Amino acid sequence: MTFIKYFKPTYGLILIAIFFLMACQSKEKNEQTTSNEISPEFISALTNKVDSTLLRKMEEEHLPGVAVVIVQNGKILYKKGFGVASIKTNKNVDVDSTIFRIGSVSKALTMFALTKLIDQGKLSYESPVNDYFNKIENPYNLQDTLKVKHILTHTGGLDQIGINREVREYELPLKERKKKRPTISAYLEDGNIRRIRPAGQHFTYDTYGSTLAGVIIEKVTGLSYPEAMDLLVFKPLGMNLSSVEVNDENIHLLASGHGYKDEKYFTTPYELYVTLPASSIDASVTDMSRLLQALTSNGSNEHGQLFSEKMMNNIYSPQFRPHPEFVGMSHGLWEGTVFGTRPDAFNVRTLGHGGSMIGTTCNLNLTPELNLGIFVVANRNPESGGGGVSIWKIFNTVFELYEIKKAPLFEVTNTPVDENLSEYAGNYYDGVFCHTCSQEEFEKGAWQRGNPIEIKMKDSILIIGGENYHMREKDIFVSGDGKEMLYFGRDKTGKIKFLVSTEDATSYERI
């Protein structure tokens, strides 16, 4: 049983040495497609293949509208929209003017703003978070220092509480709902930042750390979070329609979120969050193309600079990994060393982030080997009804055109192990839940612990969901079918504390 998650990629990376090895292996076949001069024939093939894939997905998955932009070496190879922005207006998706909600991709953009402050010398990776926000609850009396680098990599060891994040009251006008919302700082100061483990120990997808990043940005710039994002990211790149929540003057350009039920579409409400830095940026596809142009062209586009070339090198390198052979995080981006599930996975390193708001889903992907960036968005998601949305599989279509090789299976060792494996057995849980909440807080909607991954021991193997896992070396196991590798991480005392799979940074905590 595999529990690899698609990016979030998946959403959604690798040691520099391995990166260069992969690049060398792919150099010959990708020589033309990674150059600044891409042939008209390749562009035509790309256009035809992506067009047909998108139109098929729209029909199969009941998507009112989709849009995609593909950028390489700072140049736009493909940028198109299909379908309607809203079933109510029947207005076509326009990549230049239609504004989409990008959900949790906002986390990545928030981390880019934090990164820019480091690039400007106004912060450092080692800056203590307490210098900018000292209202962090510490129920376990942890003595280590929470630093900016931990916020950038979702390794801050912060609890994921989940209550009072959203201003619902959908019957009220958006302006009235906004008036009911506290400031980001006031919200976090109200007991909503709690440390539960030492920083840097392992990755947990972190809504609260991302929100805290917004407060740090406010403190350093002296601006509100929306103003700071405009100053640091949107204006320099010419992202003219992007904002933290759609501006009043542009609300007529906003694509509606949709659900699908009983063979009919319906629109979904505009979600309003207090945790703005984690979820609430709205942008056009053209704006996202300008971001990708900078990220695939040494940090700049024709409008201005986002990062220095040196910082771009940092962003493209992993900043945290639980183990050198396992993926991690870099500046808010999920790392992957293959794309997909073996044996059909592409042997290519990616960085990216997914996003979802009720009625909208999107994904941003960077492929360092190809200097390639892709953004895809659709105005329906599973949460609002209508089944799964796999529009991110457009990445597969693109990788096929670049003739990326498939990733090999892992070598399985069936050698008997003269070791008691009982210390690995037990229940492991995705860490996105509230560890410190009271029963009263759970009754108010705090995030509850999900179902566990149960690991059993039999002789010299581990069993997970009926699949056998064989020890390759201490703390590393390979599935019997060669599709997956697991790493068991330990704390400073040597006790096993978490489990991570090869191609997903998500840590599962042993409880």
Verbal overview:
The protein has 511 residues and is of the alpha+beta class. The chain contains 13 helices and 20 strands. The strands form four sheets. An eight-stranded antiparallel beta barrel has the order 13-14-15-16-17-18-19-20. Helix 2 packs antiparallel against helix 12, helix 3 runs parallel beside helix 7 and helix 3 packs across helix 8. It starts with 15 loop residues before the first helix and ends with a strand. The relative contact order is 0.18. The N terminus is likely disordered.
Which word captures the global form? globular
Residues in helix, %? 25-40%
Strand order of the largest sheet: 13-14-15-16-17-18-19-20
Point out poorly predicted stretches.
1-32
What is this structure, in a nutshell?
This protein has helices at about 15-25, 40-60, 105-120, 150, 175-180, 185-190, 205-220, 225-235, 275-280, 285-295, 310-315, 395-400, 440-445; strands spanning about 65-70, 75-85, 100, 245, 255-260, 265-270, 280-285, 330, 335, 350-355, 360-365, 370-380, 425-430, 455-460, 460-465, 465-475, 475-480, 485-490, 495-500, 505-510.
Write the SSE topology.
Blueprint: H1 16-26, H2 40-61, E1 65-72, E2 75-83, E3 99-101, H3 105-119, H4 148-152, H5 174-179, H6 184-189, H7 207-221, H8 225-237, E4 243-244, E5 257-261, E6 264-268, H9 276-279, E7 281-284, H10 285-295, H11 309-316, E8 329-330, E9 333-336, E10 350-357, E11 360-367, E12 372-378, H12 394-401, E13 426-430, H13 439-443, E14 453-458, E15 461-464, E16 467-473, E17 476-479, E18 485-490, E19 496-501, E20 504-510
Antiparallel strand pairs: 1-2, 1-12, 3-7, 4-7, 5-6, 8-9, 9-10, 10-11, 11-12, 13-14, 13-20, 14-15, 15-16, 16-17, 17-18, 18-19, 19-20
Helix pairs in contact: 2-12, 3-7, 3-8
